[in-house]
Design brief:
There is one protein chain. By secondary structure, this protein is mostly helical. The chain contains three helices and no strands. The protein has a domain of 26 residues. 54% of the residues lie in helices and 0% in strands. It is flat. 0% of the residues are buried.
């Protein structure tokens, strides 16, 4: 029995111009960022997401170190 090959995930072209797309543009969203992201291969999007997550976690760590731990109550009066 031959081994099955995993499908290759490739970039896709978004369907632009629909009512939701136009509404997002009207709200001021930069939809070119969505188009650019979807033109990237899936593995590149994962890599970009991983970098963003690493940065967010590093910023959280720095804030906790600077402020002596995490605050569970965002109210400055407490």
């Amino acid at each position: 029995m031959p081994a099955t090959e995993a499908p290759t995930l490739s970039p896709c072209e978004p369907r632009t111009g629909g009512p939701e797309w136009r509404a997002a543009e009207a709200e001021g969203h930069d939809m070119s960022l969505i188009v650019e992201a979807l033109r990237q291969p899936v593995w590149e999007r994962f890599k970009t997401n991983d970098s963003a997550l690493s940065l967010a976690l590093a910023l959280r760590q720095a804030m906790q170190e600077q402020h002596g731990g995490s605050r569970t109550n965002p109210d400055p009066a407490h």
